[in-house]
Amino acid sequence: MRYWWVNQNQTFRQEQSGGYLWSPKRKTNRSRNHFYDTMREVRPGDLVLSFRDQRICSIGVARSYCYESPKPVEFGTAGASWDAIGWRVDVQWHSLINQIKPADHIDVLRRTLPAKYSPIRAVNGRGLQSVYLTEIPIGMMEALAGLIGYEVRVFLDAPVDPLAELVADRPGVANSLKETWERHLETEIQENPTINDTERVALTRARKGQGIFRENVRRIERCCRVTRVENAEHLIASHCKPWRHSTNEQRLDGENGLLLTPTIDHLFDRGFISFEDSGRLVVSPVADDVSLKRMGLDPSAAMNVGGFTSGQKSYLDYHRDEILLQIR
To answer: Which of 39, 58, 33 lies closest to 48 in space, CA to CA?
Structure first.
């Protein structure tokens, strides 16, 4: 279990009532933001403290891994400069009765603050506006639990089993949002008068890894890179740069695809694994080792799946940079 602190001044009401965290992927100048990238390292069962108006207002239990999601419509004008696509984590929030102000207890908290990326100032305990989501050490969490009391202590001390229903990953939620998002993009393709009927069908089928896209991938790939399964009946043509982010040309480009068995496709699509240009398998630090082993993938064993074309390397660079659940 890891412990996180989130500043929710702008979107507190929306995120609390909706049961989630949401952040952009990048700053407005397109540079990386450590406090957005940390979303990629949250795991089901992690605890999150919500900070607003200089008070800790609620505690949450993460119910999913991070996944891509459009900016929630309920944000309205909040974060008007943020990108339309960002990171989302589902969270079960619980409002606190004893909403302490860390500034009132800085003499107790000061010695527990992380050396880097602290959410509050060591001098006066006031929150830092530049922070969205940051990890806090167990010592700081213990100190805060001591100040807030039973409302936090019960979550910190709870065994895993009683929370199992709350913290189970919910791929159905992520898949539903992705389906809605991609169907909207399909509608745009259907209504675009510059796209002819043949291309329209090809682009639509490519979303599911079918048609011309699958044929183009099979000209390059012969089997699943990880399992080595060759039977086409058991292989999915998976986009490296997701269909939803690709141009129409990229959606049909065979070099933007790998043939993967269903479980490996799931891991790749959700960002639990990726590949270096050298062919080395990259496993996300949030991936569950037990689950991976049951899927036939040993995360402790070094694996090289073979080289890639120059075009594939370009698309895999995007996958590692934008999809892999790992701080870059």
So the answer is: 58
Q: Identify whether the C-beta of residue 87 lies closer than 8 Å to the C-beta of residue 36.
A: yes
Q: What is the CA radius of gyration of the chain?
A: 22
| Contact by Cβ (8 Å): 66, 48 | no
User: For residues 119 and 51, is the Cβ–Cβ distance under 8 A?
Assistant: yes
- The dihedrals phi and psi of 50, each to the nearest 5 degrees, come to -100, 130
323 pLDDT band, cuts 50/70/90, is very high
190-207 residue pLDDT tens: 999 999 999 999 999 999
Render pLDDT for 30-63 as a digit per residue (tens, 0 to 9).
898 999 999 999 999 999 999 999 999 999 999 9
Residue 277's SS3 state is coil
Contact 242, 274 (CB under 8 A): no
Task: Report yes or no: 211 and 205 within 8 Å, Cβ to Cβ.
Answer: yes
How many whole angstroms separate alpha carbon 234 and alpha carbon 319?
23
Q: Please give the C-alpha separations between residue 208 and each of 157, 225, 257, 264, in angstroms, as whole numbers.
A: 44, 19, 12, 16
